[in-house]
Known about the structure:
Layout: E1 2-3, E2 6-7, H1 11-17, E3 75-80, E4 85-90, E5 97-102, E6 108-114, E7 124-127, E8 131-138, E9 141-146, E10 150-154, E11 163-164, E12 171-176, E13 182-187, E14 191-196, E15 199-200, E16 204-205, E17 214-219, E18 222-226, E19 230-234, E20 239-243, E21 251-258, E22 261-266, E23 270-274, E24 286-290, E25 297-301, E26 310-314, E27 318-323, E28 326-327, E29 331-332, E30 339-345, E31 348-353, E32 358-361, H2 364-367, E33 373-375, E34 383-390, E35 396-402, E36 406-411, E37 414-415, E38 419-420, E39 427-434, E40 437-442, E41 446-450, E42 455-457, E43 468-475, E44 478-483, E45 487-491, E46 496-500, E47 507-514, E48 517-522, E49 527-530, E50 547-551, E51 558-563, E52 568-572, E53 580-583, E54 592-599, E55 602-607, E56 611-615, E57 626-627, E58 633-640, E59 643-648, E60 652-656, E61 669-670, E62 676-683, E63 686-691, E64 695-698, E65 704-714, E66 717-724, E67 730-735, E68 744-746, E69 756-764, E70 770-776, E71 779-785, E72 793-794, E73 804-814, E74 817-826, E75 829-837, E76 845-849, E77 856-862, E78 866-872, ...
Antiparallel strand pairs: 1-2, 3-4, 4-5, 5-6, 7-64, 8-9, 9-10, 10-11, 12-13, 13-14, 14-15, 14-16, 17-18, 18-19, 19-20, 21-22, 22-23, 23-24, 25-26, 26-27, 27-28, 27-29, 30-31, 31-32, 32-33, 34-35, 35-36, 36-37, 36-38, 39-40, 40-41, 41-42, 43-44, 44-45, 45-46, 47-48, 48-49, 50-51, 51-52, 52-53, ...
Amino acid sequence: MDYLGFRVEYSKLWRLAYQEAKVTAKRKRFTSIPSTIALMIIILLGISVSPAAASWTSEMFSNTSTTGQGKTGDFYGVAADGSSMIAVGDDSTSTFGQISTAGSSGQWNFEEDFNGSPSNLVTPNIKDYEVDSLSCASTALCIAVGTLGSAIVYNGSTWSSVTDVDGGSTLTGVSCVLASTYCIAVDDLGNAIIYSGGSWASASSVEVGNALESVSCVATTFCMAVDPTEVFNFNGTSWTGLTIDTAPRQLSSISCGSTGFCIAVDRSGYSIRCSPYCHPSTPWIWSTVTVDSGHTLDSISCPTSSVGSCYAVDAGGYEFLYSSGAWKAGVDIDSSIQINSVACANSYCMAVDEAGDALSCTTAASCSSSTWTKTASIDSNSLSGVSCIYVSTTDTFCLAIDLIGDYLTSTNGTWSTPAIALRVPTSLDLSCSSASFCMEVGVGGEAKSYNGTVWTTTNSSVDLTHSWISVSCISSTFCIAVDNSGNGLVFNGSSWTIASLGSGIIATSVSCASISFCVAVDSNGNYNFYNGSEWGPNSSTYDTDSFAGISCPVGGTFCEAVDTSGGVDMVSGCGSSTCTWTPRSSIDSVGFTAISCIAASWCIAVDSNGDALNSLNNGITWASTLSIDTVAITSVSCFSTALCSAVDTLGQSFTFSGTWTSSSWSTPTAVSPYALNSISCPAANFCVAGDVESNLFTTDQLVTGPLFGIACASINECTAVGVSANLMGPIIISSSNPLNAGTWSEDTIPSSLYGVSALYGVTCASSSSCFAVGTSNSGGAILSSSNGGVTWNEQAIPTYLGGISAIYGIGCISFPVRCAVGSVLDGGVSEGVIIYTSDSGVTWQGEFNTPFGGMLSGISCTSTPECVVTGDGNGYSLIYVDDSLTGSSPSESTWDYYETSDGGMSYLYGVQCPAVSTCIAYGWTSGQATIFVNTAMTTTPGTTWNVQEVGLTGLTYVSPPPDPTSWYAMACYAGECMAVGANNASPAYYPESAYGS
């Protein structure tokens, strides 16, 4: 059975979020769930209709072919305009919000669901890449490929934007046919992707189950690719494979000088050659010889202009020449530095290494000896690939790419300075100050900001040669970052400035409590303090171990730092340049990886063993260690004492919600195929996480659980309210075209409203003026918006009304006079309360508490003015009526109450007064949905309430039977009413063509 829209089996989950005093045993339906669970009523304003007799019929949700989309669960709110209906509710798990619509034909269709949680991170919304291969067809066409299916094209002067040509897989190699517009790229899933005439084709499978390591093309009808043991030939139409190497040697590179000459090399120093036949249509002749015993051959180049010659390089700085049918002895051309790539055109070769150096030879004699010319430090980063084109007898063009996405060009060995082609291979940290501002930092001075929709590069000129290790943001106009070379960087909202942290400070983490209170810690146990204008002198060693992380709660005056040996240090008393450090004893035998504190009374530290620890007293003592993961936890971020999220080296995330027990941590959820190394959660319904491949993931902004209420100023302007799926924050969504899926968007909830935990009702007088009501950490909550839901502000509830624990409904008499109904705790027992405002919500006043206890759930007002309120009088339904309200000062003495004679335990969830003379109350009676109708409100207000329906029996239904067990909401327009609710298995819709008798 459903109670107020939630099944009994979910009561334990919801009780964690909404604690309220136990109700008496007499109120049986509430003994299993907290009484603050949503009571939702939709109020439609300004409707004038005339009643007519008719009967209620049933309609079931029709989209039964779509599993899980609205078929099960409950509907809590409905809005109508006479020809169309919009209903809101949840799915069968009470986890996701759902919206459905119906037209004049009565056909209901699933429109949209809203799902997600901080432990369920979703699609990457920004991609940065590592370059794995490069090839040039001419000076006007070069292609670089890398991680996440990324490909960029160089036209001789500029690079194209990044294109994902492979569905996010890693592209491991690319080769272009000389003097053409034809290239082929291969990936780590065994696929090949053809680039021809300026566009990419779809990926085609070459080898299932193995990564292709390299590819070489000499014609559009002849390409060779290798996986760890096999070679594959492409004839322009299909691929044919042959095993040529022995595991575990692993083929690493292949190059072809012609259709009858190719050489592949492997990671054990062997080469495998095909000649004179390399087509599978003729006998393949492959021969294996040892070239560089025991070493990795990284790259090979066989220029087409001198068929029969090849140049290979290894990880030890050696070059090997194949000529006249044999390999020559290797020569050290790079003083034992690893050479990553080599490219040759005619008798001109260029090699690049991991130190950012370039090496060239210009004649056959020099290319076969140790007399290569070394141009040192053309790049401060490792150069990963190079490709060269023979232009003329006097000109050779080369292009090189480094690991952070910079590129360089050379003509005859004169290199340009590095310029950005694409960035960045590795994201290292991120920090969010709100759901609409985050900053991500990484290798090569990477710094990107997020505005709630897109990521934008914020740094193109400062500290581009170092890795930015950690970042902390207070707002969109203030962030602090530290790099791996002893620098601190400050972001002012538009640009970065750099300053030294001091000799010996190589920071590992930084955190800011304010714009004048930031602390950086390093791998040697040192720290440095930023006072708002400059970094103080570096400290002496305060910890004998490397600091792993530091957290300074925003607005506080202290920090907690953890080290890699399991120690904790508290930082406080920071002056202009120094701080007081209070060391703690080691509390973790494994070693910490990260820490997050939101106050002195709440810190969580995580370690490399998958454990978490919690402190409630400035880190002095720590709660027992909880094992929450099987691998190292890399980062943790807390939004509140009841909501934290963490990520690990398996690319998983998980969330803490509740008390300090293992069961309060969710099961790890896969987010990325790569290790996640950072997470930041500035809101209850918003987190951002980053992985080691620079993928950034955000939680779905529409993170709703059940949607409890909906109000429409017109059929094209609707607002719905509910609670986030993690039960820790409100959700407000709006639509300017609600009858079409995909048009709902989340309204902005400022950080000042993060104490609001759920919203149960909403009413809108116009497209710009709305009120929403619910509950917060301190009691009832009232929010208002004067700009159509763009922003919401909390209304102040007077201190003497502070006992209000929740507000369940809101209705209008006439603007600006409003009434709201809610619940207070009096001696541990819930009692209903009505509060009102006569100045558009600037101030609120209390009106009365119900004489019989219980709770009030719904309110509807007409323009007479007259208001009707429904509720529960400890086991029987109560209806309160005031037919003499003056627009400014409602009085408790003018309210009359009526007990419905429904013959059993009951509860009225709401009321709708579509006309001055008619009001309809609805809810639950004796286990069945019940409707009470009064059509004589103007003559005998509230005295005559007739039972219209108790369930709907005697009708023919599809299985399962749709008899409603509860009515949760109703909307009426022009003589038409629609009620929504739930039965034992499915949502139910019941239209009434008139009010009935």
